[in-house]
Amino acid sequence: MSFINKLLDTARRNQSLLCVGLDPNPDRMPKMGILDFNRAIIDATHDLVCAYKPNLAFYEALGSQGLTILEQTLAHIPADIPTIGDAKRGDIGNTAQAYARALFSTLGFDAATVNPYLGFDSVEAFIGYQDRGVFVLCRTSNPSATDFQDLRCPDGSTLYETVAHKAREWNTYGNIGLVVGATYPEELRRIRSICPGMCLLIPGIGAQGGDLASAVRHGVDAQGEKAIINVSRQILYASKGGDFAEAARATAERIRSQINSCLKPKR
Amino acid sequence: MSFINKLLDTARRNQSLLCVGLDPNPDRMPKMGILDFNRAIIDATHDLVCAYKPNLAFYEALGSQGLTILEQTLAHIPADIPTIGDAKRGDIGNTAQAYARALFSTLGFDAATVNPYLGFDSVEAFIGYQDRGVFVLCRTSNPSATDFQDLRCPDGSTLYETVAHKAREWNTYGNIGLVVGATYPEELRRIRSICPGMCLLIPGIGAQGGDLASAVRHGVDAQGEKAIINVSRQILYASKGGDFAEAARATAERIRSQINSCLKPKR
């Protein structure tokens, strides 16, 4: 099954556009093993999400054992829930092939994030895995996203809009999506209008301060779908005590409801 | 010792601007373990190089054991030769901290490559390690580098020139360098003129077809230094037979001589 169908199935089954970012930070967790922590978060939230998104940085910071923990975490996620490898990779063609193999074959992610700075041949190896999803960074959620992404091109469009147009052009297999931060609702609206049918991965809610209602309203497609609202820290660290899993579940449940209440009635 | 001093020391000692890219591809190697292959390449070339640059993609493609091989490869590189982790990472501040920790603390690289698409806060965590080098992607060596890097900004400069200017502005600690492909000699010349004192990491010679003479002439600073000419495949796979290490050494020796013959006589 393609990534997009797996995503839509899970989102409908769980009535959820919420994605939980599995970004374990030992300083903010209860004192316990990271794998046990991840498993408890997954057990507590798997019926409330449309996807899980581990960011590889937090595993790489732990060295080779971190990658083992990531592999074991992925093995614990129910097979019908899509996984997004947030790696933001980008390299020349020959090397991009190795990264695509790392994320899609070795780790087995259903989708991955990629950085567009190197252009088409850095993305090509990823989209060649036609059953996987490829989320191209477009307008990121961080404060200095403006440094380059807002630069204006000669035709008057910004760099991030140019990336959105190019991603549409590259989307031969229909498996490209875009990453757009919830912290920039107006930019999100513009990107959704450039790519009305694409899946958008939307981080920036919660710890980063993005507004949930506008992220949902501007992010979803005409059917009220194809938006993935990612929340990491707000859910993972809802409590630092022994009740962290229950607290994570309660927070995930609340955010899922808030998202659904922003959708038009037909959903 | 800072990265730049370690680099200059090694380059002077070995009379070399050549960096060997340790990018093992099992399909192109003799039938043997990757760690043994890497160790043999290092043993055969360590007196001919100014640095080693493993690209993380080739290790990640092997899963968690790949990271162990990378750690063991780094342990085999003589301590006085600088190592550059070619990872091209770029993420929001909180996550960039985890990537910087992964590359500089966990793996212990002397320098790393980073992607500028997310702007300053994605680079900040890296340059905070003031004794390490941080190479910002500027004009990459691949054919589709033109997709975005050549876009013109309102002031008439291209995106890659804007990145070079920003990198200069960000360079408070003097540890920022730029990645510029040898496949674009004119762009290399322009970048060197924008950043006359910065260290440039120059891939694209060899398998990618960049011209060595213009890469050296346009890449070095006024003292004929601070250019790192990277070659990977042409050296690693100089022979697929049992003589691969001797062939790698002979090729590295030849390229080092070619580089030195392009330098002005005072070197």
Structure notes:
The structure is a homodimer of 267-residue chains. The first copy, chain A, has helices at 3-13, 34-45, 56-60, 64-76, 93-106, 120-127, 146-149, 159-170, 185-194, 212-219, 233-236, 244-262; strands spanning 18-21, 51-53, 84-89, 111-114, 133-139, 176-180, 199-202, 227-231. Helix content of chain A is 45%, strand content 14%. The first copy, chain A, starts with a helix and ends in a 5-residue tail after the last helix. Chain A is built from 12 helices and 8 strands. The mean pLDDT of chain A is 96. In chain A, α2 (34-45) packs across α12 (244-262) and α9 packs parallel to α10 (212-219). Chain A has one domain: Aldolase class I (TIM Barrel), CATH 3.20.20.70. An 8-stranded parallel beta sheet of chain A has the order 2-1-8-7-6-5-4-3. By secondary structure, chain A is an alpha/beta fold. The longest helix of chain A has 19 residues, at 244-262. At the A-B interface, α3, α4, α5, α6 and α7 of A face α3, α4, α5, α6 and α7 of B.
